[in-house]
Amino acid sequence: MFSRASRVVFLSVSALLFTTYILLPSHASILGSGGHQQFVLTDKSPVKRVAIIGAGAAGSSAAYFLSEYARKAEFAINATIYERCDYIGGRTTTVNAYDDPEEPVELGGSIFVQINKNLYDAAKHFNLPIADYGGGSPDGADQLGVWDGQQFVMTLHSGGWWETIKMLWKYGLSPMRTQSLVKKTVGQFLKMYDEPVFPWKSLTQTALDLELISATTSTGLQFLKSNNIYPPFTTELIQASTRVNYGSNLGHIHGLESMVAMSTDNAMAITGGNWKIFHKMIETSNAKILIETPVTSIERVPDKKAWTVKATKKNGDVLEDEYDEVIIAAPYQFTNITSKSIKAPETIKYNALHVTLFASPYRLSPKYFNFDKELVPDMILTTLPTSVEPDTANVGPAKFWSVNILRSVERELEKGVKRREYIYKIFSPDYWPDEKIYEMMDLPKDADILTWSYRKLWHAYPIEEPRATFQEAQLDFGLWYTAGMEAFISCMETMSLSGKNVAANIVEGWTSARRNAALLHPEGSL
Ligand SMILES: Cc1cc2nc3c(=O)[nH]c(=O)nc-3n(C[C@H](O)[C@H](O)[C@H](O)COP(=O)(O)OP(=O)(O)OC[C@H]3O[C@@H](n4cnc5c(N)ncnc54)[C@H](O)[C@@H]3O)c2cc1C
User: Fold this and answer.
1) How far is the CA of 57 from the centre of ligand 1 (A)?
2) Which residue from 91, 227, 365, 401 lies 20 to 30 Å from 299 (Cα-Cα)?
């Protein structure tokens, strides 16, 4: 569902070999028939107090859908979002190349696809412009290459008929089989948006019911093999995609996430940054947002169905408030929250991902890549050489997951004098210093040719090892968790869906409590 690089891998193959039509499920109301409408609200209706910890995809979606469902079900809510950082978006954020607000670059979640219903619908609803990626290489280079640390095992220029024939010759039926397997698997996942599956209480049970467990319990390699999809297509193209999207080789990532990495039809991004979706969601929700205010503890209020949330403001002031519902919308292990009264959700291993952004007038050198053409592809994904089995967790001889030119810019050096520069992005498991960039450009170690650079180490996504069970969303009465979804599928859309699911469960809980109370006290209003 993700990076531009992987989008091009599969789009290129798709465009070459076949066309897909994935039908979107029709929208369905998630709160059923609206039986709540028979109840009359009066001033006695208690305002529901909700704390949301984290303003990323999950937290902002939880706020947005909570306000929508509560409004439809006629509950008054008072929601507060606590955010540790000084921005909205979490792992979906941009930085400005050259410190120029006209040149934002995605530092985290970059791409979503049209079947990502929450994001796509929100983008349309909020009228956010979709980014245009433009055409091919600015210099006429190949669009894409897959490098194994020694040589390019595959390059694509523009997908003409000759390349089509070469691909068919090389990969046989595997691309078409992959396409239909992706469609089938993603089709099952899409059922999670609609009744009767949505809203789900147990992710584990849902994965079982949707027959996605066979995909999550096997490695990508096993899952593909059991569907008659073989190397070199798997080890060259699909693995290049799991590496750029999840920093994992095919023997180290589960089958479902491997399919997601190949689900790239109609990829898109929001002009100026995908975080704009989450910003709009929060704005629309009317929730109060407390930026730079990390939550430090959550404790149960004795003898009450409520929670005390403590947070510290930037100036050191401590905030303490009571809530009916608390949504932890971040991987708990990274929140530094303490609690004596909650059982911490499962700790899962996350991939450390170094993102290196830089700008330079230079292109990468063919010599570094042992390439016999004058220009290396604009987008270089990597895979393992055939001598290394895909069950390794290591990056292999390539040492990085991907490097690509995001775009070229015409920079004004002085009045009337412009030159072309390239903005690059590297994903690697280890820190990627300037010297290594110069080496990739075949320049001396002390060359000083970066006109801008920015680095960030992320806990980007879990190491998606095969598994049969998943952390459930409800941790306790009135206590919810979104990040269990990440071991199933980790991306902006699924985290948004996880937030939406929690919101729906909360409002369903309120609705059934109101219904029960009305049955017990038919004369009273609630
Ligand atoms: C480099 C990179 C590339 C990616 N590429 C893609 C892509 O192309 N497409 C895609 O769909 N996905 C991509 N992803 C994944 C995607 O960005 C994430 O899955 C998604 O953004 C996670 O959203 P979230 O809300 O669950 O968590 P987060 O975004 O991590 O949000 C959690 C928030 O909680 C806050 N927080 C934590 N602790 C506290 C506390 N104690 N108090 C208050 N606030 C707290 C954090 O500051 C953060 O803002 C990428 C991720 C990375 C890092």
Assistant:
1) 7
2) 91
